[in-house]
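Class, carefully examine what follows:
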Amino acid sequence: MTQDKLLPSRLARLQPGLAAFAVLAMGFVMVAVSFFWHFGSTTASNVTRGGTEVIKEVGYGSAFNWSVGLTLLLPAAILYLCKAYDAFIRVVRDLAERGMALSKTLDPVPTDELRGEWTKILDSRRKWLMVLVLVGTLFSLWEWWESSAGPLWANQVKQAKEWDWSVGAMLDDSGESQSAPTGARFRNGLLSLLAFLGQSLIIAVILTFVYQTILASAFFTRLASPDGPYRLIPNAKSQDPRRGFEGLSDFLEYSLILVAILYFQFYLSRIQNIYLRSDAENILSFVHRDLVKGLLTNPLDLGATVEVVRQGLDPSEAPLDYTSIMVSLAAFGVMMVAAFMIGSTVRGAARSAKRELLALTDTKPEAVQAVVGLGKEEIQRSMENMVFWPVNYLRAGQFFGLVLLGVFCIFFYRLGVILLGLVLLRIFWEVVKYLWGESAQASSDGAGNGQVPGQSQH
């Protein structure tokens, strides 16, 4: 990674790939240990939302929000968080090297000076990130005590908020409560401690991502502000219609991938909490019956009618559980941060830069020509075709539509199947277009060489 670090120096020396691999390895070890200690597959006698008692699978292995989330999604989130940050450092460098950052006297700002501005923003606000991460860790430890450690310490499974793997030592083979020996409770508590510490890492990734977005917004606001020490202008010579702001594409694409990873984690947590209150005996039957088959047989029931609509009408209905509310709020917050980052900061900076360049072209044409290397008319033609949406493969309307759909999918969880289907169709369509384009290009090249397509030259 680069020398401009978001985290303190000791943490920043960790390589992103190595850190992600370490978390990945720890995730696999936790899954293996959970089955070795008999917490990977656990049954519990749970009471459903309708009051029916059912014996169901509640092991660590089948709790995908824990097993898949900590083993696969968390390492991927760490990796793409670091990729996004490194990409933004390249953005800072490219702004200087492309002559897009100018002083008030229209002199190009040196790379070191611009990076110094970014470092000032980091240094002035880094301590608040550490405070938030510490609060998130304490919150996870409190949840660990409430959900697992406290009941295990008291040897009373009835004190637990959920009857699942986190108190599996106190559940017998039939899913009923039992008094467990100290050794089994200690192993159970150790596994759950590691899991909740993993949850604290997820919280840290979310907070760091939000914080990183706020800092990037502050940096561009300072550059584009008329009252600030700099002037931000487009690169009028760029052949890309984004006129220099294409350098932001890697940062934004990595950020969007991170949002997708975090959103999937939220969705898995939501599904797990609904499953625990359903009458399904295992998670696979719940997915088949309630998500896929339920959507096909009754497409108007999107999964939250009881929770959202009837909750306000029927006082006998149980409200949304605490975890689902927290997950929903976290999902909404992250999606809105992503929307703000792309829809407001980047597009606003690009529009402001265009206005700045056109104004300077009218008031100081000779100075602008010396800096940009183009005449007034050439600059105006370049600015006429400038595009403000920074992402290549996703249009603005599609992005905001996905954000809105994603927020609804957390509550109306069966919509998640529709969202997944749309994403898979889009991926399939892009692959087909790519393969078709490659085939057409090969045919064109063959015809240009006087060669019949499919026939090799000797």
